[in-house]
Amino acid sequence: MYNTIKHISCYYPKNILTNDDIHNKFPKLKIKELTRLTGVHKRYICGEGETSVDMGFSAAEILLAENSIDRNDIDFIIFCSAGGDFITPASACIIHNRLGLKSNCGAFDFNQGCTGYIYGLSLADSLVQSSNAKDILLITSEAITKTIHPEDSSNRAIFGDAATATLITKNNKGSDNKFIFGTDGSKFDKIIIKHGRERYPLPEYAEQDSLDNYGNAHNDSKFYMDGAEVFNFSVKKAPDLVNEILVQNNISIDDINYFIFHQANQIILETLGKKLKIPEDKLIIDISNTGNTVSSTIPIALSNALKSGKIKRGNRIMIAGFGVGFSWGGTILDI
Questions:
Q1: Where are the alpha helices (DSSP H) in the chain?
Q2: pLDDT digits over 87-144, tens only?
């Protein structure tokens, strides 16, 4: 990435769902075993009437306030989310208005789930390099829990809601690190919310519940994930992705200070670390207090590591995402 991540800020909803709360609702759930596999102890949940747009706006306001950023300096908003207030217009336009930004500011949405932050950085970097913008606001915001069936204990234990805002700014001294992307569209239905758009519009299709092999309720208007397929894909594809990033950038694992992968769950991250022989102190796992927040996991982990002092300016970071689509992507950040 040639240009610079200047600032990152995060927003979390006020509501918190703990593992004790989940166990109270699902007393037969083996919560200790599930916690060990997921690594999640609590997660933030959107309030009633709170949307991904509201959270994205709040994250952007925090970023502007925390860093004394002049709103007139923002040239572009990129909004990454599986949600949004409306099918049209773009949520980025709504956030633009609520932030009170200048009119000569671009704004668009895209939906790329677990690899969304990687895609967003690449898009922002390209806009800056093409001289179409100098300061870009990249927002990731996921209200994923709104799409999970209330009786789906497994996914309810994994996922949480959150938003992040990142300022990408022009830097002529940046490193020309390569982005790597890939797609296996044949597995599009392994993580899916099937009904609600043009292919299967609501309310034309009746929503009938069914139970999976673990007793979790599901219907086609709610979030579905084939956990076994996602695990197999992640632990197979992610090592290939990491090695390709290293080769394309002509570096080795020893040249990387820290690795931040999409925070899917604890067991996937630990498995990847072992397969790639990444030293434990270089692999950042930050899922315990937030859960899997989809496109927001990487910027949350990066922001927390920067604020704690674990990651310092001058460090070299590999970030990589893999999931919905199936898609994957990654790059090297010289922070």
A1: 19-25, 31-38, 52-66, 91-99, 116-129, 153-158, 227-248, 266-276, 297-308
A2: 889 999 999 999 999 999 999 999 999 999 999 999 999 999 899 999 999 999 999 9
Q: What are the residue numbers of the active site?
A: 114, 262, 292
Assessment of whether the complete model's pTM goes beyond 0.85: yes
pLDDT at 3 > cutoff 70? no
| All residues at 6 or more sequence positions from 312 whose CB lies less than 8 Å from its CB, including other chains | 335
As annotated, the residues of the chain forming the CATH 3.40.47.10 domain(s) are 4-169, 180-334
The domain made up of 4-169 is a member of CATH 3.30.70.120: no
CA distances to 70, 88, 114 from 82, rounded to whole Å, are: 29, 13, 10
- Distance (Å, whole) CA 82 – CA 22: 24
Burial 60-70 (b: 16+ CB within 10 A, else e): bbbbbeeeebe
- 180-334 is classed in which CATH architecture? 3-Layer(aba) Sandwich (3.40)
Concatenating the DSSP letter of every residue in 200-229 gives: S-TTTS----EE-TTS-EE-TTS-EE-HHH
**Structure tokens given for 85:** 């207030």
**Segment 138-177, tens digit of pLDDT:** 999 999 999 998 888 889 999 999 999 999 998 866 667 8
Given a contact cutoff of 8 angstroms between Cβ atoms, the answer to whether 98 and 57 are in contact is yes
Q: CB atoms < 10 A from the CB of 235, how many?
A: 16
DSSP type of residue 294: G
Token pair for 180 = 């790597």
How far apart CA 133 and CA 128 sit, in angstroms, is 5
| Structure tokens that stand for 82 in this block | 């599986």
